[in-house]
Specification:
The complex is a heterodimer of chains A (274) and B (264). Chain A has 274 residues and is mainly alpha-helical. Helices cover 80% and strands 0% of the residues of chain A. Classes of the chains: A mainly alpha (274), B alpha/beta (264). The interface between A and B is medium-sized, with 19 and 23 residues.
Chain lengths: 274, 264
């Protein structure tokens, strides 16, 4: 009797803790939505009572209508894809160059002493400062935009990779030497996997930077992309479309970050630093 | 195989001292620190040697020289008539903290030991055999971070044994283990040594470990380090210093030599 009561209680407790877990999961979705609703409400009220015209400060409902229009006529999709393509191209180019260079700089002290000052000198120059040269060298179209994104991604990535490569636990190299790894094996089986967790973190930050720069890059010399959408809509005095463009940038930014965050699940050993 | 001769080995490190900022010459050659001073030792084939000494006395340095991770300043380490010039699968080092590659499973780590085996089937059999030997069956696909401290140590031991080296070098193999894992792995190392008779060098600072495991105990001490004692032990296993008077006497002698006392 007593025992069965205890049993029932423990079952109830289990159920309760499941509920708490479920509610905790739900809180992660509900609470941001609450904040969003409050902001939208404040926005709507401001536009309604501030006396600003809809041309200057469109209401959320108006922006939503604008988004509907742009979705229906396919412009939103077209511009998003154009921007994503440029970011992807520039980002991949940066990965291809930055990671091998970073590894070499991290492991070869002489080259690091030679090149690190050059990199540190170029790094703080905003990619936007390169716009005149980019247009001069690559003309108009996708190329200069991709180049700017490449620059924006390259420097943080090369620095992060070099730091990670330098910080590899020396024990791993002794193990490699003990089992007679050659240089190629040491690179692919020790260096690359050892820097992977740090590089993934850097990639996550870098893709955000690339996405930040693409909009600016698209304000020159191209006729597509979310940056172009914003610029073009401003020229047409459609502030609702401008805001749709901004929102889309934010949404895709969240999606990209989430995607990069999930990369650690590719391999079970990636979820911790070494 | 596995005869080791340490002939007149010295090891010095030069400290590069960085002086205060504003100094004209930021890098001055610092003083040279001599760690090992004319060390002469000989270990027989199949011997289990326990190196004892206070921390920082140069035990690990000596091991690294034998492993070939570091070069001697003077003198030489000779294994089976050949001078050690670098690391080799013939003398495998078991690291103080885990030397497993964390991005590889237990299986992949142990497989490193049999890299030179051409035939895939033989290779797989050897890997399995060594994993079974250290009792890690069913943990083949686990990553090191999913194992306990004791299991990691056993996995690394399996990897070392898979390479079938003549010499096994262990730097404080019980460091960081809980009491029970310590006892268990100590027993396993002794059993494995009885079975395979590989020359095994164990650095430890635990007098009881040395007494229970060693065929030979070498005590190092001083700065720079010298050999304080080099004694062969002829006691059969299992040993117990509480029951064997001679072993107990040696234990007292070692405590005295290391400048500590067991009774407080």
């Amino acid at each position: 009797m007593n025992r069965s009561a205890t049993h029932t209680r423990s079952l109830l407790m289990e159920r309760a803790s499941e509920l708490v877990g479920w509610r905790r999961g739900k809180r992660r979705i509900v609470l941001p939505l609450v904040a969003l609703a409050v902001i939208l409400l404040a926005w709507e009220l401001t536009t309604r009572y501030s006396g600003w015209s809809a041309q200057v400060f469109p209401s959320p409902s108006r922006v939503m209508r604008g988004m509907g229009e742009l979705i229906v006529n396919g412009m939103l999709l077209r511009h998003s894809i154009a921007s994503l393509f440029r970011v992807t191209a520039g980002f991949y180019l940066a990965i291809i160059f930055a990671i091998p260079i970073g590894i070499v700089l991290g492991r070869v002290e002489t080259l690091n002493l030679m090149l690190n000052p050059v990199i540190q000198f170029l790094r703080p120059i905003s990619p936007l400062a390169w716009i005149p040269l980019a247009v001069l060298w690559f003309g108009i179209g996708d190329k200069p935009a991709v180049f700017l994104i490449f620059l924006a991604c390259f420097f943080p990535l090369v620095v992060a990779t070099a730091i990670a490569a330098r910080a590899i636990n020396p024990v791993f190299f002794q193990v490699a030497a003990n089992f007679k790894f050659n240089r190629w094996e040491t690179t692919t089986k020790v260096i690359v996997p050892a820097i992977m967790p740090d590089v993934l973190t850097a990639l996550r930050l870098t893709v955000g930077i690339g996405w930040l720069v693409v909009v600016a890059a698209e304000m020159l010399a191209v006729r597509s992309g979310l940056g172009y959408l914003i610029l073009d809509s401003r020229n047409a005095l459609r502030m609702d479309y401008v805001m749709v463009g901004m929102m889309m940038i934010g949404l895709i930014g969240i999606a990209l970050d989430d995607l990069m965050r999930r990369l650690v699940y590719l391999h079970p050993a990636l979820q911790r630093a070494y | 195989m596995g005869h080791i001769l340490i002939r007149d080995v010295c090891k010095s490190y030069r400290n590069r001292r960085i002086t205060r900022r504003g100094s004209r010459d930021p890098y001055q050659p610092g003083e040279t620190m001599r760690i090992l001073d004319h060390i002469n030792l000989e270990f027989c084939e199949g011997e289990m040697v326990c190196l004892l000494g206070p921390s920082g006395c140069g035990k690990s340095t000596l091991l690294r020289l034998i492993a070939g991770f570091d070069m001697t300043t003077a003198g030489e380490v000779v294994i089976d008539g050949r001078k050690v010039v670098g690391p080799s699968p013939n003398h495998i080092f078991v690291f103080q903290h885990s030397g497993l590659l964390p991005w590889m499973t237990v299986w992949q780590n142990v497989e490193l030991g049999v890299r030179n085996v051409e035939d895939l089937r033989t290779r797989q059999e050897k890997v399995q055999e060594n994993i079974d030997m250290v009792d890690l069956t069913d943990f083949e696909q686990h990553y090191p971070h999913q194992l306990s401290g004791g299991m990691k140590r056993r996995a690394e031991l399996a990897r070392a044994l898979a390479a079938n080296p003549d010499v096994l070098i262990m730097d404080e193999p019980f460091n960081g283990l809980d009491f029970l894992s310590h006892m268990r792995i100590r027993e396993e190392i002794v059993n494995m040594h009885e079975l395979l008779r590989k020359t095994t060098l164990v650095v430890t600072h635990d007098i009881d470990d040395a007494l229970l495991m060693g065929d030979r105990i070498v005590v190092m001490g001083g700065r720079p380090a010298q050999i304080k004692l080099n004694r062969q032990l002829d006691f059969p296993h299992p040993r117990d210093p509480k029951k064997n008077a001679a072993l107990g006497d040696l234990r007292d002698e070692l405590f005295l030599m290391l400048g500590v006392s067991y009774a407080v």
